[in-house]
Design brief:
Elements lengths: L4 H26 L5 H37 L10 H17 L1 H4 L3 H18 L1 E2 L2 E5 L2 H17 L11 H20 L10 H37 L1
Length: about 230
Amino acid sequence: MEPDVGAIIAVAALVLVASALVGAGLYALFGKPTSHEGKQRKQHVIHGFELGGGIVLGIILMASMVGCSQIAFGVVESGRIARTTALFITLASLLLIFSMIKHWAKHFAGWVGYSVLNGLRMASTGHLLSNPSILVPRWWSISATLLMLKSAVVSVRFVKNYTLNAVDKAALMAWLLGFTVAVDFGSTHAFYREPLGLVAMLVGTLALVAASLYHRATHHHRALGRSVQGSHS
C-alpha cells in the first residue's frame, strides 16, 4: 500500500502546530524575558492562551448543556447516560457558564453575529446545515436570522469596557436558555412546523432588548442627575 502523501503532510503540519503551541505555552509559564519587548510578547502569549482556552471551554460547556438537556428532557434517547445524570451535567454546565459570564459576555455579539451568517446560509439552502435531510421553511430561517441580528446589535456594548449589571446577566442567561430550547427541539423534524423554538429565541432577544433599554434609561438618568448637580453648583 502506497503512503497517502496528503495525510502525511496534514499530520506533519498538525505536529508542527502542536509543537509551536507547546513551546509557546512553556514560554508563557516559565519564560523570564528581561527586555520590555520580551515582557510584552509574553503577555500577548498569555492573553492568547487565555482567550483560546476560554473559547474551547465555552464550546465544551455549551455542548454539554445543550446535549445533556436533550437527554434529560427526553428529546433524544441515550443508553450511555441516565436522564438524572444528564440533568445534573446540564445544571452544572449552566452554573459554570453563569459564573464566567463577565468573561464571555464581551465575545457574545461576535458569536451571535456568526450565527447570523449561518442563518443566511440556511435560508439560501432551504435545509438544516448540519442535516440536509431536514427541510427548513425560509420564513423560519429569515425570522431566526433577524432575531440573531437584533441580539447581536443590542449586545455590541458588552464588547467595550462595560460592567454587567443584574439585568444584563439575567438577559444573557435568558437568551442562552432560549437558544438551548431552540436547539433541543431543532433535533426533530416537527420543530420547524411548530413555533416553540422561534418563540424561545424571541423571548431571549426581547430580554436583551429590555436590558438595553434599561441601560439607556439608567445612563440617561445618571447623566441628567450629574447635569442638575452641576447647574446647582
